[in-house]
């Protein structure tokens, strides 16, 4: 007897309203899995919100829309409660500023800053914020309730973790830090007590109370970090950066393996654990190198090293959903360019073109026929550092940020000279790949000679493409200045309208729109 | 729900001025729409009475103008009500946003305040992706999905609404959900 089709089996459970173990789902098609997961979330949310509205009892007190149930923790400036959100019909974690802290001068704005930072990051491994407000004079922020334990509590109760568990935690936290760093932030306090393992295994990085942009992490914030996790440079008072988070992650992985912290003088991981896989030991030792130049440069590089420690194969591309696909074809010189004339009076004159990855880098033009399987790159040539944003929306309204992306070696600003995006990873060329036919695909390319902070902040709330399997398709390409293109995509239109002022500064920003129609094959 | 009182029949009678038929339609759909709407109103306007009022206003507005509704086949009246209610809720959200019922915090918090429980639970981008994919489904598939996933109706009630059998609607719903998931995942 044939085994039941796993997609049909999941659809059955979803439609019948039965719970689904997503981690155990035996579907290799990640895009299908993602689609089913969204539908399960929709169904579950409607059921939860529609049916339940009464809070569990007893209620300690009410704070705004929340019924506060019990206190679960307290620090110097804040108290944490379990609360019931009747709107969401679910339990939430509520963090309230202590009145004494307010009296001592901690301003509401400073306290609520954590919620503002969390709101910029939408990632499975970072705590999701639900809201922030001031009620009855008390500032508070509430976020998802994680039913689980901190890694510190787990090590204290059960002892150090296995090598495989540590590797898994490391990969999940690399993903979390990649998202935080891609938002231009530094966490600032990565440690075992700030990482939760939810029932079911999800790893969640919490407490962005010490986080901020590198520039904003001044001396007062530095003191909030836990000394055992500080890099030698941070201990010496150097400005904080994303590299310090990665050092702290190295300390955390060391702690999870040994239950102790590394000393300044000697990295003794292999001496402590002679049976430890030397490849894993090497990855952690590298993260803890005294010389920053010897450490993993970025979160994705740390993750790649951890993955590579599983086998000798090159680091695999994780494919969940999106546009990036691995490819090994060498890039060749381009044909024509789409050139946006620079406004008078400025020397900044970036040139950009979407090019065919498979046809010797030929620039795509109106009327070119593309089909499923075709791969695209973006070629950029600029005479000064340039910030690049590439957005895509398809006919169904599915919207993705294609660049910048956490995990890519290229990041904004791109240096002067010639750059091919999405670029390479671990020696393999990446491209955006066409994988489905029928319908409209629109792209907006924004080039700027300075950061666009509000625009970036808005983009952080949208789904980013992930480095994974090809999904969609293209057939005809058109390119023209935005003013000459009428976009259909509602997300793109809304975004461009919202930022018309910021994007309309022709001295600083250039915008190019593309429209594609898809077809199955040439 | 009684088989002899199909939506089509009640709509016909309501169009002819039968007040009892109108009341029966209201009684049939009010609780379903109320439950559905609670997840759609943002926290800034999240009050049980507000939501219930809006649902009631929408339903009675539609029923009072029942002559304008063109019956497009089984299930379409519920989808029509959902669409009307969704538009009204969106207008309400915009109205509240214009009046600035925020706490004087920055824009991030004003945005959070304007998110409905459903948006907060699922994420705005995912919900919009779902809405767009749903819109792209054939009408009958769309209505089946809405009745099962959003309104949480039983197969028997859906069958009655669609003038079909429970087994047939069960199979049709599964096919529609699979197709929707494929579209959401970017296969189509």
Structural commentary:
- By secondary structure, chain A is an alpha+beta fold.
- Chain A has 4 domains: 6-51, no CATH class; 61-144, Phosphorylase Kinase, domain 1; 148-308, Transferase(Phosphotransferase) domain 1 (Transferase(Phosphotransferase), domain 1), CATH 1.10.510; 324-517, no CATH class.
- Helices cover 28% and strands 23% of the residues of chain A.
- Chain A is built from 15 helices and 20 strands.
- In chain A, the strands form 4 sheets. Chain A has a 6-stranded antiparallel β-sheet. In chain A, strands 10, 11, 12, 15, 16 and 17 form a 6-stranded antiparallel β-sheet that branches. Chain A has a 5-stranded antiparallel β-sheet with strand order 14-13-18-20-19, with helices on one face.
- In chain A, strand 16 (423-425) and strand 17 form a beta hairpin.
- The two termini of chain A are 39 Å apart.
- Mean pLDDT of chain A is 73; it is low at 216-223, 312-346 and 466-485.
- Chain B is an all-alpha fold and 188 residues long.
- Chain B folds into 2 domains: 1-122, no CATH class; 124-188, Orthogonal Bundle (Arc Repressor Mutant, subunit A), CATH 1.10.10.10.
- Chain B is built from 10 helices and no strands.
- Chains A and B meet through helix 1, helix 2, helix 4 and strand 5 of A and helix 5, helix 6, helix 7, helix 8 and helix 10 of B.
Query: Sheet with the most strands of chain A?
Result: 6 strands, antiparallel
Report the sheet with the most strands of chain B, covering strand number, pairing sense and barrel closure: none
Rg of chain A is 24 Å
Strand arrangement in the largest pleated sheet of chain A: 1-2-3-4-6-5
Structural class of chain B: mainly alpha
Cα(first) to Cα(last) distance of chain A is 39 Å
Summed over residues and divided by their number, the pLDDT of chain A gives a mean of 73
Note poorly predicted spans of chain B.
99-113
- Tally of DSSP β-strands of chain B: 0
Beta-strand content of chain A: 15-25%
Low-confidence stretches of chain A: 216-223, 312-346, 466-485
Question: Which percent range fits the helix content of chain B?
Answer: over 70%
- What does the radius of gyration of chain B come to? 18 Å
Number of E-type strands of chain A: 20
Principal-axes shape call of chain A: globular
Number of helices, counting only DSSP H or I runs of 4 residues or more of chain B: 10
| Helix-strand topology string of chain B | HHHHHHHHHH
Largest interface chains and counts: A-B, 63 and 52 residues
């Amino acid at each position: 007897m044939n085994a039941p089709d796993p997609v049909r089996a999941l659809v059955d459970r979803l439609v019948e309203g039965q719970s689904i173990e997503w981690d155990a789902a035996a579907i290799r098609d990640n895009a299908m899995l993602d689609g089913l997961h969204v539908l399960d979330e929709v169904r579950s949310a409607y059921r939860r919100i529609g049916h339940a509205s009464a809070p569990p009892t007893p209620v300690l007190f009410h704070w705004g829309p929340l019924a506060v149930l019990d206190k679960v923790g307290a620090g110097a400036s804040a108290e944490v409660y379990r609360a019931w959100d009747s709107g969401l019909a679910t339990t939430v974690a509520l963090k309230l500023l202590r009145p004494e802290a307010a009296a001592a001068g901690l301003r509401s704005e400073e306290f609520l800053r954590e919620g503002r930072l969390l709101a910029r990051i939408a990632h499975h491994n970072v705590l999701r914020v639900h809201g922030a407000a001031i009620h009855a004079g008390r500032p508070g922020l509430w976020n998802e309730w994680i039913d689980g334990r901190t890694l510190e509590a787990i090590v204290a109760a059960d002892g150090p973790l296995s090598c495989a568990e540590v590797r898994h935690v490391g990969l999940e936290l690399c993903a979390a830090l990649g998202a935080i760093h891609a938002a231009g932030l530094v966490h600032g306090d990565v440690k075992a007590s700030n990482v939760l393992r939810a029932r079911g295994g999800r790893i969640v990085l919490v407490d962005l109370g010490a986080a901020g942009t590198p520039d904003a992490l001044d001396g007062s914030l530095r003191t909030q970090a836990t000394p055992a996790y500080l890099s030698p440079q941070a201990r010496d008072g150097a400005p904080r950066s994303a590299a310090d988070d990665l050092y702290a992650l190295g300390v955390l992985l060391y702690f999870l393996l040994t239950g102790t912290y590394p000393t300044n003088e000697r990295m003794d991981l292999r001496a402590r654990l002679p049976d430890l896989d030397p490849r894993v030991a090497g990855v952690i030792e590298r993260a803890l190198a005294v010389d920053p130049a010897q450490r993993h440069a970025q979160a994705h590089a740390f993750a790649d090293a951890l993955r590579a420690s599983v086998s000798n194969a090159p680091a695999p591309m994780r494919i969940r959903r999106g546009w990036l696909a691995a490819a090994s074809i060498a890039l060749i010189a381009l044909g024509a360019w789409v050139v946006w004339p620079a406004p008078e009076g400025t020397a900044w004159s970036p040139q950009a073109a979407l090019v065919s990855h498979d046809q010797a880098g030929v620039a795509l033009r109106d009327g070119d026929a593309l089909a499923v399987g075709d791969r695209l790159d973006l070629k950029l040539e600029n005479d000064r550092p340039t910030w690049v944003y590439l957005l895509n929306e398809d006919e169904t309204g599915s919207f993705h940020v294609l660049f910048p992306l956490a995990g890519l070696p290229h990041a904004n600003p791109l240096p002067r000279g010639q750059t091919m995006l999405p670029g390479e990873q671990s020696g393999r060329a990446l491209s955006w790949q066409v994988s489905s036919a029928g319908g409209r695909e629109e792209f907006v390319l924004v080039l700027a000679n300075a950061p666009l902070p509000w625009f970036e902040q808005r983009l952080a709330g949208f789904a980013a493409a992930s480095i994974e399997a090809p999904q969609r398709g293209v057939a005809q390409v058109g390119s023209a200045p935005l003013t000459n293109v009428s976009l259909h995509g509602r997300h793109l239109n809304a975004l461009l309208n919202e930022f018309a002022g910021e994007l309309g500064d022709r001295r600083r920003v250039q915008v190019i729109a593309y429209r594609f129609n898809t077809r199955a094959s040439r | 729900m009684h088989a002899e009182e199909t939506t089509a029949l009640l709509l016909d009678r309501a169009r002819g001025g039968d007040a009892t038929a109108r009341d029966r339609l209201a009684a049939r759909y009010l609780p379903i729409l109320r439950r559905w709407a609670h997840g759609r109103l943002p926290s800034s306007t999240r009050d049980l009475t507000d939501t219930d009022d809006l649902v009631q206003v929408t339903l009675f507005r539609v029923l009072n103008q029942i002559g304008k509704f063109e019956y497009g086949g089984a299930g379409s009246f519920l989808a029509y009500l959902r669409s009307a209610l969704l538009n009204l809720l969106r207008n309400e959200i915009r109205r509240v946003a214009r009046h600035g019922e925020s706490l004087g915090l920055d824009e991030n918090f004003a945005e959070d305040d304007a998110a409905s429980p459903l948006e907060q639970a699922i994420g705005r981008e995912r919900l919009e992706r779902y809405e767009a994919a749903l819109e792209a489904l054939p009408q009958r598939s769309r209505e089946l999905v809405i009745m099962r996933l959003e309104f949480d109706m039983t197969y028997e009630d859906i069958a009655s609404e669609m003038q079909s059998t429970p087994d047939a609607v069960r199979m049709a719903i599964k096919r529609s959900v699979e197709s929707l998931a494929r579209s959401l995942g970017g296969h189509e």
